[in-house]
Amino acid sequence: MRFLALATDYDGTLATDGAVDPETLAALRRLAATGRTLILVTGRQLNDLLRVFPDARIFDAVVAENGAVVYRPATGATRVLAPPPPADFVETLQRRRVEPLWRGQVVVATVQPNDTAVVEVIRELGLDLQVILNKGSVMVLPASVDKASGLRAALAELALAPERVVAIGDAENDQAFLGTCGYGVAVANALDSLKATTAHVTRGEAGAGVREIIDWLITTDA
Length: 222
Fold this sequence. Notes:
Structural class: alpha/beta
Number of helices: 8
Radius of gyration: 17 Å
Shape: globular
Largest sheet: 8 strands, mixed
Helix content: 25-40%
Order of helices and strands: EHEHEEEHEEHEEHEHEHEH
Strand order of the largest sheet: 5-4-3-2-1-10-11-12
Strand content: 15-25%
Distance between the termini: 5 Å
CATH superfamily of the largest domain: HAD superfamily/HAD-like
């Protein structure tokens, strides 16, 4: 068995319109039954993810907030990997009426075209923060945090090497963690810029594409 784990993005990859279909959930369970590790890597805040996808408990680890938080469903343990942006950053955005504006344990999020105002505030305050785009969403995180860094932290906890992982995604913020793993996959509905950097593009979109990869792993990488 070359690949010991599957790391998948949530929105637009595992899920369509925020929901995972029963066929895809069943495929994940089939893959878990082979002894492989399941890792969910998402830009969503953890509480929001668990609200829309309570079946996240089938995963061995969840990397949330675009790499800032690692959650272990089996134990309920949560590890925050970086400090949040300072309060004056959020207060400045609020004074400039950047809306909507959400705060997670670490991430601060809004939507485009607010990224221009966010970058201006970061520069004015001299903060070591980065702006990560995700199909219209705008996430602000410490400069050292992305899906790749969060996945590496989860893999260290799970004693897994990145080269033994198949990773699948659809958007700009997935490129970092797909490039970290042994085999990067883009679903058919992924951005062209992501497809150009991956080893494989599925025929099916979103969950159907994830099922393709799961079937491939089960049948050809026994």
